[in-house]
From TrEMBL:
Protein source organism: Winogradskyella pelagia
Name recorded for this polypeptide: ABC transporter permease
Pfam family, one: MacB_PCD
Subcellular compartments: Cell membrane
Regions that span the bilayer: 27-47, 290-313, 334-361, 381-403
Main location: membrane
Keywords: Cell membrane, Membrane, Transmembrane, Transmembrane helix
Length: 416
């Protein structure tokens, strides 16, 4: 064990000497490893951070949540001309579902795509996301209130002029003033603030911090939801431990009968589960990782050739020393390991510089973006170190083999 520790120490010493004696050459050779490790780990860190942010945003929502819409979440075999003729999901459809389907924990009817100007006295906020939705959304999305309350089912049914607003909206509209009980204007109408959500932070799409929640029946008389109007949806959260496939089958059959779809005809609606959206996100993240690996692989290939070049030059420069070591009894494996360790150490130096650059960027980005945290995980650090070591091992094996096979007499004579 002591012999190998000494070997590692001497290899590290030789590597540092190579860096000092040939700084420009070493810098250019290690640049490929540095750029490659930086690219791979930066992509992995960015994708991990994005994945973490998405999952935090979806943390309170059951992935079995079902959306009934006349448009599809993703690709579909239904031709566009048929989809364009599908009737929008109506409030009557929503009432049918909640009255005729069992095993529903919560359901909601929503108009989405609304963006309006919100005013309070002299303060005006443009293009604010408006979530016109029934009371059930409170349980489906597990909304967290910082102040006040959410509107009741009765207020939802009557279309009462009340709103619940996001944390950032409350700050921008009211500053340090108490928001509860204040009246704001949306659609040119007055609505009373009855609740303020907790701070959520930035999210994919519109954050709850920048969203206004108000009863859907308040909006139905103001904005068109027909074929040429805003899209609508029924959101259903099944009870826990329900057989989701059986539930979906029953829901489809009952909704077909309700909508008058004839036997043999295709559905004039789409049932989409949130789990399908999560799977889509997972596939996108996987694709991003693969693309990152592919692009970074070229830099690693260049870096590997650079390390091999350094090692071949190092073998040539130390031929005399190798001959002396072997004449004094050094075994071939000692010479082999010496150069292998040196190659790995050189590659690690390049990799560590790449990791350091990624860490600096994550720190700077997290500081600049308060609501989105870039994270360099321990797993990604291990991946970076492992790839660097592997590049060093692969790049150094041929030069190390050539050094270990040198004839001691010829090596000493060549070096003289």
């Amino acid at each position: 064990m002591l012999v190998y520790l000494r070997l590692i120490r001497e290899s590290f010493s030789f590597a540092i000497t190579a860096l000092n004696n040939n700084r420009l050459r070493t810098f250019l050779s290690l640049l490929g490893v540095t750029v490659g490790i930086f690219s791979i780990i930066a992509v992995l860190a960015a994708v991990d951070s994005l994945d973490r942010s998405i999952r935090e945003n979806l943390e309170g929502i059951d992935t079995n949540t079902i959306y009934i819409m006349n448009i599809s979440f993703g690709p579909t075999d239904v031709p566009k001309w048929k989809r364009d003729n599908f009737d929008p999901i109506s409030y009557d459809d929503y009432n049918f579902v909640r009255k005729n389907m069992s095993d529903i924990e919560a359901s909601a009817y929503s108009i989405f795509g609304l963006r309006e100007t919100v005013r309070y006295q002299a303060e005006t906020l443009g293009s604010v996301n408006i979530a016109a939705v029934t009371h059930g959304i409170y349980n489906i999305e597990r909304l967290k209130l910082g102040q006040g309350r959410f509107y009741t089912e009765l207020e939802s049914e009557k279309g009462a002029p009340v709103v619940v607003i996001g944390y950032r909206l409350a700050e921008n509209l009211f500053g340090n003033a108490e928001p509860l009980g204040k009246e704001i204007r949306i659609f040119g109408r007055k609505l009373r603030v009855i609740g303020v959500l907790e701070k959520y932070g930035d999210a994919i799409g519109d954050s709850p911090d920048d969203t206004v929640y108000l009863p859907v029946n308040f909006v139905r008389g103001i904005r068109n939801t027909g074929k040429t109007g805003y899209p609508t949806a029924i959101v259903i959260k099944p009870k826990a431990n329900v057989d989701i496939d059986a539930f979906e089958g029953i829901l489809t059959q009952k909704f077909r009968i309700h909508r008058g779809v004839k036997a043999g005809d295709i559905n004039d609606f789409f049932l989409s589960k949130l789990s399908g959206f999560v799977n889509l996100i997972d596939s996108i993240i996987t694709s991003m990782n693969v693309i990152g690996w592919m692009l970074s692989g070229f830099s690693l290939l260049v870096g590997g050739f650079g390390i091999a070049n350094i090692m071949f030059v190092s073998v040539k420069e130390r031929t005399n020393i190798i001959g002396i070591q072997k004449s004094l009894g050094a075994k071939n494996k000692f010479i082999l390991f010496q150069f292998l360790f040196e190659a790995i150490i050189l590659a690690l130096l390049g990799g560590l510089v790449g990791l350091a650059l990624v860490w600096l960027i994550t720190v700077a980005s997290s500081f600049a973006m308060d609501d989105f945290k870039f994270v360099l995980s321990f797993t990604n650090i291990i991946i970076g170190v492992g790839i660097s070591s592997l590049i060093g091992l692969v790049s150094g094996v041929i030069p190390a083999l050539s050094a270990s096979r040198l004839d001691p007499v010829e090596a000493i004579r060549t070096g003289m």
